[in-house]
């Protein structure tokens, strides 16, 4: 009999995860799987569970939770010899990876869609010992996301990140970057550096409109220092997917990028604090065997 591991974060989705757990287990059983359910209790549990699923050659891994739980699960699947099928049930504030894969943000619909999904190999990226599926960000604006409280997430959702980011933009902070990529180099000051893998970043699905989940590319955005009015313009262009037309933004496609700063700067990886500069980011093309809704990119 086929084996599925179901990883859930019981505290995610305003603690609604357990309400959907029975539906997930029933659906997987109807699909012909024996189900091994694992609940996370602490950081990195989902990574360890997913790695175990690879080691024991499970056929399918389903993770349910917010972006942090999904990132941990994908990290456990990364660079393994065995590649089980993977899907997710979104219960987070932003749910970027679900958006990028066109998975319904309604948990019940996402669970039901497991029955009709199709297989697609998708990209992830690696920086140091970390992996990510959506976005790496550097700069005062990126660090501001750590100020978002659980209460703000519950009340405001993704807009809470926008508010904290706007506060950071008004601060007069300068950061010097040396950024090397496939075809060149950038040296200078920037307010924010983004490295995107998918079109959905922070809940905004048009930030990187050309980014596909399987294009084998990192989409690099260098947002230079500018006054508040310019950042308001940049935010507008971000919302409509026209960052590449903004004079204060450099847009680069690459497979690898090296980033140095004049002093160590911690990055934000898929919404959580990552490693400090200097570091190298590289794409792992078509690395995760995902189950996605049919006839959707």
Describe this structure in words.
There is one protein chain. The chain is of the alpha+beta class. The chain folds into two domains: 2-116, Rossmann fold (3-Layer(aba) Sandwich); 132-285, Tumour Suppressor Smad4 (Sandwich), CATH 2.60.200.40. 29% of the residues lie in helices and 35% in strands. The protein is built from ten helices and 15 strands. The chain has helices at 12-15, 17-30, 45-55, 67-77, 96-100, 107-113, 140-144, 150-156, 159-169, 228-239, and strands at residues 2-8, 33-39, 60-65, 85-90, 118-127, 130-132, 135-138, 175-181, 184-196, 218-224, 249-254, 256-261, 266-269, 272-276, 279-292. Strands 5, 6, 7, 8, 9, 10, 11, 12, 13, 14 and 15 form an eleven-stranded antiparallel β-sheet that branches. Strand 3 (60-65), helix 4 and strand 4 form a beta-alpha-beta unit. Helix 2 packs parallel to helix 6 and helix 3 runs parallel beside helix 4. The model is unreliable at 156-163 (pLDDT under 50). It comes from Planococcus koreensis. Residues 1-130 form the DAGKc domain. GO terms for molecular function: ATP binding; ATP-dependent diacylglycerol kinase activity; metal ion binding. Belongs to the diacylglycerol/lipid kinase family. One of its GO terms (biological process) is phospholipid biosynthetic process.
β-strand number? 15
Query: Gap between N and C termini, in Å?
Result: 30 Å
Helix content class = 25-40%
Strand percentage lies at 35-45%
Number of domains: 2
| Mean pLDDT over the full residue set | 86
Tally of helical segments: 10
Tell me the Rg in angstroms. 19 Å
Give the name of the CATH architecture of the largest domain. Answer: Sandwich
In one word, what is the shape? elongated
> Helix-strand pattern, N to C?
EHHEHEHEHHEEEHHHEEEHEEEEE
Give me the secondary-structure category: alpha+beta
* CATH T-level topology of the largest domain: Tumour Suppressor Smad4
Question: For the report, how would you describe the main beta sheet?
Answer: 11 strands, antiparallel
Keywords: ATP-binding, Kinase, Lipid biosynthesis, Lipid metabolism, Magnesium, Metal-binding, Nucleotide-binding, Phospholipid biosynthesis, Phospholipid metabolism, Transferase
InterPro entries: ATP-NAD_kinase_N, Diacylglycerol/lipid_kinase, Diacylglycerol_kinase_cat_dom, Lipid_Phosphate_FormReg, NAD/diacylglycerol_kinase_sf, YegS/DAGK_C
Cofactor: Mg(2+)
GO molecular function: ATP binding; ATP-dependent diacylglycerol kinase activity; metal ion binding
């Amino acid at each position: 009999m086929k084996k599925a591991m179901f990883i859930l974060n019981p505290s995610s989705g305003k603690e609604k995860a357990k309400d959907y757990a029975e539906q997930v287990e029933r659906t997987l059983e109807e699909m012909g799987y024996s189900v091994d359910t694992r609940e996370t209790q602490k950081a990195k549990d989902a990574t360890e569970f997913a790695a175990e699923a690879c080691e024991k050659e499970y056929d399918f891994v389903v993770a349910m939770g917010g972006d942090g739980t999904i990132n941990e699960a994908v990290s456990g699947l990364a660079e393994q010899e065995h590649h089980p099928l993977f899907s997710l049930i979104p219960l987070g504030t932003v749910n970027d990876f679900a958006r990028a894969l066109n998975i319904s943000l309604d948990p019940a619909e996402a669970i039901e869609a497991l029955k009709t999904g199709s297989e697609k190999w998708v990209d992830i990226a690696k920086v140091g010992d970390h992996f990510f599926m959506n976005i790496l960000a550097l700069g005062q604006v990126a660090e501001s996301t750590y100020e978002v409280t659980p209460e703000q997430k519950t009340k405001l959702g993704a807009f809470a990140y926008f508010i904290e980011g706007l506060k950071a933009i008004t601060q007069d902070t300068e950061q010097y970057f040396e950024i090397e990529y496939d075809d060149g180099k950038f040296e200078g000051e920037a307010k924010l550096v983004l490295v995107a893998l998918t079109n959905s970043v922070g809940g905004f699905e048009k930030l990187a409109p050309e980014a596909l989940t399987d294009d084998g590319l990192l989409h690099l955005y260098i947002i230079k220092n500018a006054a508040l009015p310019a950042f308001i313009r940049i935010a507008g262009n971000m919302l409509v997917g026209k960052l590449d037309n903004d004079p204060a933004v450099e847009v680069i496609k690459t497979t690898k990028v090296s980033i140095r700063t004049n002093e160590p700067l911690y990055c934000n990886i898929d919404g959580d604090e990552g490693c400090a500069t200097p570091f190298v980011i590289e794409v792992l093309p078509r690395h995760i065997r995902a189950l996605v809704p049919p006839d959707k990119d």
